[in-house]
Amino acid sequence: MKIFEKVLLFLLIIICIAIVFLYFEDKAQKEKEAKEQALIEERKKIELVLEKKRKVYLNESEKLFSGYFYDEAIQKLKEDPQIINYTISEKINEYTIAKNNLVKYEGKVEHIFFHSLILYPEYLFPDLKKPDDGYNAGFIYKSEINKILPELLTRGYVLYDITKLFKKNDFGIMEMQDIYLPEGKKPLILSVDDPSYHYGIGFAKRLVIDNNNNKLTGEVIIPEGNIILSEDSDVELVIEKFIENYPGFSYKGARGTIATTGFNGIFGYDLKTEFSKQSAKEVVDKLKEMGWSFASHSYTHNRKRFFSNGSKISNIEYDTKKWKEEIEPIVGKTNIFIAPFGYLLKGQALEVILNNGFDIYGTVGIKAKTLVNDRYVLMSRNEIGGYALRMYKEEMNNRFFNLDEVIDLYRPPLK
Fold first, then answer.
1. Bridge partner list, 190
2. Cβ–Cβ under 8 Å, residues 346 and 156
3. pTM reported for the whole predicted model
4. Sign (positive/negative) of CA torsion 379, 385, 391, 397?
5. Which residues, 6 or more positions from 212, have their beta carbon under 8 angstroms from its beta carbon?
6. Separation CA 237–CA 212 (nearest Å)
7. pLDDT by residue (tens digit) across 12-33?
């Protein structure tokens, strides 16, 4: 073989080797790039999953934070270390600062209460020129409470749990607990009296649990006679809907206290059968789950023989025993007694109430008054009804809401 041919063969071999080398190098490079791209895509997928997770955690923590659950909101964001980034860290810092900036509330604690809502005033009061002191005096319209709640929120009020406000210390002495809220916020105790639902057309007929969504709803007899379901048929449901939209209106899940009687059942259940009792208890349990507490409002709600100057101790004993036997098994034990008509029992009659475990005693009065005794506390409640709307304009305007913006024009005068 000539030298030229050998050189040519050598070059061909070198070229082939180079081609093979380049091929495998290119293949390796592509495989490397593919792996890197796959890694990038995998990281993107992981980040996408983490980002979705962050949004869920941020939403949940924001709901907690909006309801003043500061520690729980912070803990929620720290629950999964993988989601922590700059945004999460900033939120944790924001919540921590908000918690540290809470201030001790030093003012008076207001307590307002409602009766069941008037749903169809035009049915109850067909003649607006005819004065009325019945439902018109003690009850509020649904249209009015829907205007009251935003005004209370605007004025800084926050629903607060009365059972968290008053507690006995280790020595059995009643004490009012310190309240810490964001600056500008004010605690508000709320109660609802006598939800027996015996009022008839124009009011809620019964509270029931909707099987479709497991939510509480109300049966209402409309003026035409038909029964409909309504998600805002009474105070508890209206407030629940309001808090869903404005969670800052409730401090740590607080709602209010429902003061139950027994002479006409509760929530539209007569309690005469086991089925009626069980149905009422299911409603009570759902309300407790929502954040409501319960109180005794006496069994009879009778002024003449029970809660007046002529009250006999034996009658108070009978009434209290009757409530504890028939209503306590439905609503559970409670230490709250909401006196009928705000009547303050004294002497041995008061001892009957205290000896039966009631150490938070609610009265009625236009002024916010709280008297903490060693054994019990007295707290006045401000009724929000037609009488207050007509007679206490200055008090309502100064403390709770702009009355002219709230009162429904379809209201007859008081007698």
1. 112
2. no
3. 0.89
4. positive
5. none
6. 17
7. 778 888 787 777 777 777 777 6
